[in-house]
């Protein structure tokens, strides 16, 4: 029979700072996510008698020391989601939920080429459009489009991919976006 666990000691400023450092060392996070984590831990364990905790000061200090970097977190998270096949809308929603500022989310927004590449990657993974192993009936095609929309891709791109007849057609569509991107960089 197990012995009951002793309840964890309530936080003082030092213990909270140590917890924040430990969390920032283990996980990529944004300042808002770290603050929410610390507040949740305080609710769970309480505050030591006679203590006044300054969560915001701890988070600001970790940002100042660059242990927590919202821009680096946003770029890494955005890239990860795009590589997994999620669309721009899903990326923006995830970053907003992580507390990333609107102007930074706008700066991080994927290019047209990156959005198309992610959509094609999702179609490959899920067997949509020209990547389907078997013939797809119209009802199933609509479900594929809906799945791509739920993954954050715009309707027009989802429809184009699902209705594409060959991988060459998708490669041409992707290269058009790459050419457009090259022209705008000059």
The geometry reads as: elongated
Proportion in β-strands = under 5%
Q: Whole-number average pLDDT?
A: 93
Structural class: mainly alpha
**SS summary, helix count:** 10
Largest sheet: number of strands, sense, barrel closure: none
**Cα radius of gyration in angstroms:** 23 Å
Strand and helix order = HHHHHHHHHH
Summary, kept brief:
This protein is an all-alpha fold and 186 residues long.
3D structure, described in words:
The protein has 186 residues and is an all-alpha fold. It folds into two domains: 13-68, no CATH class; 71-181, no CATH class. It has ten helices and no strands. It has helices at 13-26, 31-45, 55-64, 70-83, 88-97, 102-108, 112-126, 138-150, 155-163, 167-185. Helix 1 (13-26) packs across helix 3, helix 4 (70-83) runs antiparallel to helix 5 (88-97) and helix 8 (138-150) packs across helix 9 (155-163). The radius of gyration is 23 Å and the shape is elongated. The model has no long low-confidence stretch (mean pLDDT 93).
What is the fold's blueprint, element by element?
Blueprint: H1 13-26, H2 31-45, H3 55-64, H4 70-83, H5 88-97, H6 102-108, H7 112-126, H8 138-150, H9 155-163, H10 167-185
Helix pairs in contact: 1-3, 2-3, 4-5, 7-9, 7-10, 8-9
């Amino acid at each position: 029979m197990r012995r009951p666990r002793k309840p964890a000691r309530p936080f003082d400023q030092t213990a909270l700072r140590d917890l924040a450092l430990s969390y920032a060392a283990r996980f990529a996070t944004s300042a808002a996510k770290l603050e929410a984590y610390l507040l949740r831990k305080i609710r769970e364990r309480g505050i030591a008698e006679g203590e006044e905790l300054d969560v915001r000061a701890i988070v600001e200090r970790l940002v100042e020391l660059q242990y927590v970097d919202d821009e680096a977190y946003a770029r890494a998270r955005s890239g990860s989601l795009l590589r997994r096949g999620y669309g721009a809308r899903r990326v923006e929603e995830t970053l907003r939920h992580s507390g990333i500022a609107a102007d930074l989310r706008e700066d991080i927004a994927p290019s047209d080429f990156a959005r198309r590449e992610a959509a094609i990657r999702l179609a490959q993974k899920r067997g949509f459009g020209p990547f389907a192993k078997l013939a797809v009936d119209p009802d199933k095609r609509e479900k594929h489009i809906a799945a791509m929309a739920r993954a954050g891709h715009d309707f027009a791109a989802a429809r184009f991919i699902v209705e594409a007849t060959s991988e060459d057609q998708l490669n041409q569509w992707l290269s058009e976006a790459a050419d457009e991107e090259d022209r705008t960089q000059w």
